[in-house]
Amino acid sequence: MATLTTPISEATIRALKVGDEVHITGTLYTGRDAVHKYLHEGGQLPPEVKLDGGILYHCGPVMLKQDDGTWKCTAAGPTTSIREEPYQAQVIGDFGLRGVIGKGGMGEKTLAGCKEHGCVYLHAIGGAAQVLAECVTRVKGVYLLEEFGSPEAIWELEVVNFPAVVTMDSHGNSLHREVLAASQAELAKRL
Fold this sequence. Notes:
Blueprint (H helix, E strand, L loop, with lengths): L1 E4 L4 H5 L6 E10 L2 H8 L14 E3 L4 E4 L5 E5 L9 H11 L3 E4 L5 H10 L2 E4 L5 H5 L2 E8 L1 H4 L5 E15 L6 H16 L1
Parallel strand pairs: 1-2, 2-3, 3-6, 6-7
Antiparallel strand pairs: 2-9, 4-5, 7-9, 8-9
């Protein structure tokens, strides 16, 4: 089990391989469809959002505003990542990401971006949104809330021991590609 503390160095990411389990401590930024499209089209990040050496989480968290004006994260499950495939490699390169968290995996374009720029795709457990929210110790900020709405905003989350598994590494290996090939081979035997 590796511990990743943000910001993360390229050397730390390049040492990871498909199948490695990690615990993440530090800052995660959420980003879904609206954020990816916005950045892909040249949109600017607010100056407070520091993605370089960081991790972008494909997540639309459920947040409750507290009486004191702060936010509490009550659910933080991953969303399906493949929707970001047209944008992800560019976002990785443009912003110096070292990790992307989601579920379901991503395609060859993102895999190539991970290899070129020193990034990994991390799979979080779907259906465990409340358990994953327990790893969020503080909501540090929210950005582009008015523009995109709560699920699509960029939420800055402080996390401790957030669990994930490397399923696409920076060496061109993809567990998702392996599973697809094995499934297709098995299907071919049955046809």
